[in-house]
Amino acid sequence: MEITCTRPGCTNPRNFFSDLDDKQTLKTVQQKYCSSCGMQLILDGRYLPLKLLGQGGFGAAYLACDRRTPANHACVVKQFQPPTDLSPQQLEIALNLFDREAEALEQLGAQHPQIPRLLAFFPLSVANVRTGSTDQFFYLVQEYIQGKTLEELVMEQGAFSEAETLELMRSILGILQFVHENGAIHRDVKPSNIMRHENGQYFLLDFGTVKQVAQGSASGATMGSSTGVFSAGFAPPEQMAGRAVYPSTDLYSLGVTALVLLTGKLNPIELFDAYTNRWQWQPFVTVSPGLTAVLERLLDPTPNQRFQSAAEVLAALNPSQTGAPTPPINPYPMSHPLPVVTAPSPVAALLPAAVPAATSATVGSSSGLTGGMPLPQSQPKREGLPLDLGKLPWASSWLWDCWGVPCG
Fold first, then answer.
1. Taking residues 295-323, what's their average pLDDT?
2. Are 351 and 391 a contacting pair, CB within 8 Å?
3. Where residue 212 falls among pLDDT bands split at 50, 70, 90?
4. Is residue 111 over pLDDT 70?
5. How many Å separate Cα 233 from the centre of its chain?
6. What integer pLDDT is reported at residue 69 of this predicted model?
7. Catalytic site residues?
8. pLDDT for the residue numbered 92
9. Domains 2-143 and 148-404 share a fold
10. What is the mean pLDDT of residues 105-116?
C-alpha cells in the first residue's frame, strides 16, 4: 500500500508498505512513519492519505481511506498549511476561518444529502527531526463524492442542453434554499464547486466562504456583510464591491453558472459586455423564452431586482405548478447557528506583506479588482466591521482551489 506524507515540503512524500496489503495488519498496526521526514502517516489513528488531490497557497487535499470502517471507505482529508511567517494573531484568524468550514459542513452536511458530511476535525502535533521543534497541523475530513465537477464535465463534453441545465438549476436551488433558510450564504457558487455524482445527483462543495447572515431590513430580508471574497466572473456587483450580500448573491452566481453550461464557455467574462454592463449571452445559445426570462432576472446587477429566494426561482421554472415549490430534502433548522468570526484589531494591521496568488478566486475590494464587471450604483456603503476577513489571503475559499477537484 502507498501512503502519502502530508508534511509540507517533504522531499519524498510517497511511502510504500507491503505489510499493509494484509487487511488484518492494516486494521491493527499502531502507526507508520514517513521514510523521508519521519511524519506520522496514519492521521488521528484511522485516516491514511493515499494521494494528493490538489494544493493551494494555504492548504492541500488528499484522497484517503478510513481503516476503521469495514470497507476502508474513501474520504477527503483537507490539511491547513499556514505559512511560517504568520503572526500569532494572523494564525488565530486563519484557524477561525478553517473552523468556519468545519462548522458549516458539520451543521449543513449532516442535514442535507447534497452537501458533503464532516467526518472529523482535529489538530496534530509532530516532532520535526530537522529543526528540533514541534510542528502543528490541522485537518478536516469530509465525505468523498465520486464524480466530476461541472467544470470538468464542460471541458469533456462541451455545452449542456437546456434540459440538462434546468435539471442542474433545480437541484442546486433546492440546496441553496436549505442553506439560506438556515441562516447562511455560500458566496462561491460556480462550476468547480458543483459536482455530479456517478449516480447523477448534484452536490454543492466548498463551504470555506460560507457567511452567517442576519435579519436586516424591516421586510425580514436576510443579508450579511461581505468580506470582499469572490470568484471573478461569477460574483455579482455587490459582492465584488465588498458590500452586503444576500441570498440573491448566490442566485446571481447560479445564473452565471447556467450560462457557462449552456454556452460551454468556462470563462464567463467572455459573455459580459463591460461597455453596457450587461450579459450578452444570447448570441451564443438559444433557449426557451421562459428560461431566458429567468436568467435575465437572476443576472440583474441590482440585488433587489433579482429573485429574492431560491423558492421564487423554482416557482418561475415550474410555472404550471400551483402553490409553493417542492421543498428541498431535510429542510430542518440547525440546532446551532454558524459562528461569526471577529477580531478586535483592524484588519490592516493583520495583513501579511505580500499576498500569494494561488487560485482563480479573487480577494479584494472594488479598487481595480472587478474583472471588468459593473459596480452597483445604489448599494449602501458598508459600515466599519471589526474584521474584514475577505482582505486576508486565506479568506478566498482558503485560496484552495484544490477543493474544486473531484474530491467532494
1. 88
2. yes
3. low
4. yes
5. 16
6. 95
7. 188
8. 78
9. no
10. 91
115 closest CA partner among 334, 395, 325, 362: 334
Amino acid at site 392: L
Query: Angle, nearest 10°, between helix axes 247-263 and 310-317?
Result: 40
The residue length of the chain stands at: 408
Beta-bridged to residue 142, according to DSSP, are: 76, 118
pTM for the full predicted model: 0.73
- Which CATH architecture describes the domain 2-143? 2-Layer Sandwich (3.30)
Residue 373 corresponds to which cell in the numbers above? Answer: 464587471
399: left (phi over 0), alpha (psi -120 to 50) or beta: left
Q: Which residue has the higher pLDDT, 330 or 200?
A: 200
Q: Which of 232, 222, 225 is nearest to 211 (CA)?
A: 225
CA angle 301, 303, 305 (to 5 degrees): 85
Q: Are 214 and 187 in contact (CB under 8 A)?
A: no
What confidence score (pLDDT) does residue 67 get?
97
pLDDT digits (tens, 9 = 90+) for 366-381: 323 233 333 333 333 3
- In this prediction, residue 59 carries a pLDDT of 80
Identify which has the larger pLDDT, 211 or 42: 42
- The answer regarding whether domain 148-404 maps to CATH 1.10.510.10 reads yes
Q: Are 398 and 98 within 8 A, CB to CB?
A: yes
355 contacts 393 by C-beta, under 8 angstroms? yes
Reported confidence tier of residue 126, pLDDT bands at 50, 70, 90:
confident
Per-domain boundaries in the chain: 2-143, 148-404
3-class SS letters over the chain: CEEECCCCCCCCCEEECHHHHCHHHHHHCCCCECCCCCCECCECCCEEEEEEEEECCCEEEEEEEECCCCCCCEEEEEEECCCCCCCHHHHHHHHHHHHHHHHHHHHHHCCCCCCCCEEEEEEEEEECCCCCCEEEEEEEEEECCCEEEHHHHHHHHCCCCHHHHHHHHHHHHHHHHHHHHCCEECCCCCHHHEEEECCCCEEECCCCCCEECEECCCCCCEEECCCCEEECCCCCHHHHCCCCECHHHHHHHHHHHHHHHHHCCCCHHHHEECCCCEECCCCCCCCCHHHHHHHHHHCCCCHHHCCCCHHHHHHHHCCCCCCCCCCCCCCCCCCCCCCCCCCCCCHHHCCCCCCCCCCCEEECCCCCCCCCCCCCCCCCCCCCCCCCHHHCHHHCHHHCHHHHCCCC
Query: What is the rounded average pLDDT for all residues in the chain?
Result: 77
